[in-house]
């Protein structure tokens, strides 16, 4: 491990694809030593292709992949020295736990006794003490994925690639392994790139989250930043702000910005920081269901938008009600603790600070 | 209940009769003939068979086992390239070509090999034309080597077909995991792919073994008469002397050898089922 001051991995304008189809359109990404990165995206966004291109299983068509400064884009997978954990575990059924976990060490010419000692220590770390001589086919899913993790960690990698390693596990084991992987990463200090489609997994494990969309990086940042300051409508929607309303931002007579939505009796005045204010003109705003509350349809707006609407659906997922409200020609989902009958006129109260504003695009 | 049982028997009867007439009766008859000498039970026919043909028995075993071993090497190499190859045109060409010998009968293969492997055959002539060999250095390969080459050429595609299928159905990630940890492709083939498809390889080799044990045309066509394979000896005993008892004794020896292989095959498939 090491690489003083240098990035553990630097991906530079990387493109890759299958045949005539380009999957990655110029990816730039830098991961510091010891940093945990999660790549989050929906199916087909290119996140697994990016990981496989870094590992060398997929050929890049242009761009560079630098591991501690050395470009490895032209090297076969076995020469790259990055360790990978696979979604299907990919353990070798004809070998024992020791055979699987010690394989990388055997390739590096380590003596048998030393391999047994190191694998034993790793097994202890993974809560699998004493399973050295067990057949991997006799292990549970969680144990298998721990062995697969141990196999990758046995070679003391500076960079670990995790390809949806938890998606085949049941919910409880998944939560536990999430925590264990993160703890091991902190303790051993390797850099990690974790590909997942599970938002919470990415947010809770990573130092920085990379959101991918259509083979491009949509946003990179710490979990809090991407959650509170999404860079695009796609990121906002992907991170749960699925309600959308159209607004008009107009400067008032006093110079302060006023926001007007269709059906709103009077506009709301912008009182937040000037740099966070939307630019004048038509804007779209995205918000999460928990960012809004229900109030009277004629409530005074203050520093919030109050959209008059009618309760259309109601569900009780536990702890609060989830309402579907028809307001301003759109169907909004709102979380609220109070009980409202269907068909009741309500006001959807949206504090301006909870809205993510973007300029309205012609589409 | 009894009616339906009779009906079932009646339905199976034609098939049973066919099996009995065409297989069980000749098999039983040949067994009886093999163990009978001048009307009494005896091992005399086996004594004569071993006296006359013990060299040929060993020769047959040697050729069949050597051909099997070389077939295994060739099949692993071809299936390995098909599975782990990274040069698309090479993999494509190999995939398209390797099955061709499957469609060529043994006798035609033997005939082709006669013209290919002879002292003035296509192979030697090509080597001479390429300057690799002096015309005086050329030698005919029309002996045990010719038989082995023909068997390998004919059987490697069959074993490859089964082996490449088994390799293709492996979890690709197990291969990638090996390379990821630093194993080159040859190492991945030997240490990761091959152990996982070993049951299939053994089964394919047993089937191939039984096939090569029973080929008459190739040893007759490609190599000389002494020593030769058991199939040729059996044909000779019958055609030249009408000596069915000794021919049948040789047949029983062949059964015994292939029976061993079949036992091995059954044991493998039972294990495979137990593991699944």
TrEMBL record, chain A:
<dbReference type="InterPro" id="IPR050093">
    <property type="entry name" value="ABC_SmlMolc_Importer"/>
</dbReference>
<dbReference type="Pfam" id="PF00005">
    <property type="entry name" value="ABC_tran"/>
</dbReference>
<dbReference type="GO" id="GO:0016887">
    <property type="term" value="F:ATP hydrolysis activity"/>
</dbReference>
<dbReference type="InterPro" id="IPR003593">
    <property type="entry name" value="AAA+_ATPase"/>
</dbReference>
<dbReference type="InterPro" id="IPR003439">
    <property type="entry name" value="ABC_transporter-like_ATP-bd"/>
</dbReference>
<feature type="domain" description="ABC transporter">
    <location>
        <begin position="9"/>
        <end position="239"/>
    </location>
</feature>
<dbReference type="InterPro" id="IPR017871">
    <property type="entry name" value="ABC_transporter-like_CS"/>
</dbReference>
<comment type="similarity">
    <text>Belongs to the ABC transporter superfamily.</text>
</comment>
<dbReference type="GO" id="GO:0043190">
    <property type="term" value="C:ATP-binding cassette (ABC) transporter complex"/>
</dbReference>
<keyword id="KW-0067">ATP-binding</keyword>
<dbReference type="InterPro" id="IPR008995">
    <property type="entry name" value="Mo/tungstate-bd_C_term_dom"/>
</dbReference>
<keyword id="KW-0547">Nucleotide-binding</keyword>
<dbReference type="GO" id="GO:0005524">
    <property type="term" value="F:ATP binding"/>
</dbReference>
<protein>
    <submittedName>
        <fullName>Fe3+/spermidine/putrescine ABC transporter ATP-binding protein</fullName>
    </submittedName>
</protein>
<keyword id="KW-0813">Transport</keyword>
<dbReference type="GO" id="GO:0140359">
    <property type="term" value="F:ABC-type transporter activity"/>
</dbReference>
<dbReference type="InterPro" id="IPR027417">
    <property type="entry name" value="P-loop_NTPase"/>
</dbReference>
Automatic annotation (TrEMBL), chain B:
<feature type="transmembrane region" description="Helical">
    <location>
        <begin position="244"/>
        <end position="266"/>
    </location>
</feature>
<feature type="domain" description="ABC transmembrane type-1">
    <location>
        <begin position="57"/>
        <end position="265"/>
    </location>
</feature>
<protein>
    <submittedName>
        <fullName>ABC transporter permease</fullName>
    </submittedName>
</protein>
<feature type="transmembrane region" description="Helical">
    <location>
        <begin position="201"/>
        <end position="224"/>
    </location>
</feature>
<feature type="transmembrane region" description="Helical">
    <location>
        <begin position="97"/>
        <end position="117"/>
    </location>
</feature>
<keyword id="KW-1003">Cell membrane</keyword>
<dbReference type="InterPro" id="IPR000515">
    <property type="entry name" value="MetI-like"/>
</dbReference>
<dbReference type="InterPro" id="IPR035906">
    <property type="entry name" value="MetI-like_sf"/>
</dbReference>
<dbReference type="GO" id="GO:0055085">
    <property type="term" value="P:transmembrane transport"/>
</dbReference>
<keyword id="KW-1133">Transmembrane helix</keyword>
<comment type="similarity">
    <text>Belongs to the binding-protein-dependent transport system permease family. CysTW subfamily.</text>
</comment>
<keyword id="KW-0813">Transport</keyword>
<feature type="transmembrane region" description="Helical">
    <location>
        <begin position="147"/>
        <end position="170"/>
    </location>
</feature>
<keyword id="KW-0472">Membrane</keyword>
<feature type="transmembrane region" description="Helical">
    <location>
        <begin position="58"/>
        <end position="85"/>
    </location>
</feature>
<keyword id="KW-0812">Transmembrane</keyword>
<dbReference type="GO" id="GO:0005886">
    <property type="term" value="C:plasma membrane"/>
</dbReference>
<dbReference type="Pfam" id="PF00528">
    <property type="entry name" value="BPD_transp_1"/>
</dbReference>
